[in-house]
Design goal:
Helix content: 55-70%
Strand content: 15-25%
Distance between the termini: 176 Å
Largest sheet: 6 strands, mixed
Length: 276
């Protein structure tokens, strides 16, 4: 039989202190009560089971400690993730505020743009009114210029009716047998029309008036237009007076030398107002 102190040391190597005391008391009491060998063997088996259970409990406690540590790590990771999430949320909040500011700026810019567009619309309307006024004024100006041009043209023609007979006789030996008139022949208006003799032969005067004969103003088109118009009117006279000798004439205030040469080459008399 072990002494109580030896028994205590043995038990302490396996059990907790409070368990050692209980077991020591139980074993001592059993021994004192002359426990049977079989009972003692059963008691030993119980003690062994308790020792195994204690070891398993310690393993579970260790596993729980490891699990607790893992849980703490996970909690720490969650805490860090939460902090990062909060930072991202703060960034999103700042970004949202910046976005709202930009949207507000866009709204203000849109309002300003609409105001500018409205101003442009008003300006456009005013411009259209001004253009209408200008168009009306230009129409009046054209009418006035046209009227003035016609007045000057009529003045040139009126002078020509009076002074051409003497000019033609003196310069070209053409003598009028009746007065020059404005008339219409075969649908064509003739500015100067009259019967005459040239070198003793009957002739018809067919003439047009033009303020200025200048081949430079619109390249050669002006020259061609004036001459072609005179030719067209002469053709109408030829149809109405077949076989008659036609004398073509242009009356103007001034004709440039180049135009005079071109007209002379086609047998056209050019009478300038300063010549009579």
């Amino acid at each position: 039989m072990l002494t109580p102190s030896e028994m205590t040391r043995k038990l302490q190597s396996v059990f907790e202190p409070h368990q050692v005391a209980v077991l020591s008391e139980v074993i001592t009491a059993a021994y004192e009560n002359l426990v049977k060998t079989s009972d003692f063997s059963e008691l030993k088996a119980i003690v062994q089971e308790l020792a195994v259970a204690q070891q398993n409990t310690q393993k579970e406690v260790q596993e729980l400690a490891v699990a607790q540590q893992n849980t703490q790590k996970e909690v720490q990771e969650l805490a860090v993730a939460q902090q990062n999430t909060q930072k991202e949320v703060q960034k999103l909040a700042v970004a949202q505020q910046n976005t709202e500011k930009e949207v507000q700026k866009l709204v203000v810019a849109q309002q300003n743009t609409e105001k500018e567009v409205q101003k442009l619309v008003v300006a456009q309307q005013n411009t259209e009114k001004d253009v209408q006024k200008l168009t009306f004024a230009m129409g009046n100006l054209r009418s006035e210029v046209g009227g003035l041009s016609r007045s000057i043209g009529y003045a040139l023609e009126n002078d020509a009716y009076r002074f051409l007979p003497a000019f033609l006789l003196d310069r070209y030996d053409i003598e009028m047998t009746d007065r020059l008139i404005r008339t219409e022949v075969d649908g064509e208006e003739i500015n100067f029309f009259g019967h005459a003799t040239r070198d003793g032969e009957p002739a018809l005067i067919v003439g047009e008036s033009k303020q200025r004969l200048d081949e430079r103003r619109r390249s050669r088109r002006e020259e061609e237009t004036v001459i072609s118009t005179l030719e067209r009117k002469a053709e109408a006279v030829r149809n109405a007076y077949p076989g008659e000798n036609i004398v073509l004439m242009l009356i103007t205030h001034y004709a440039r030398p180049a135009f005079l040469r071109a007209a002379e080459a086609q047998g056209i008399i050019v009478a300038q107002s300063f010549e009579w």
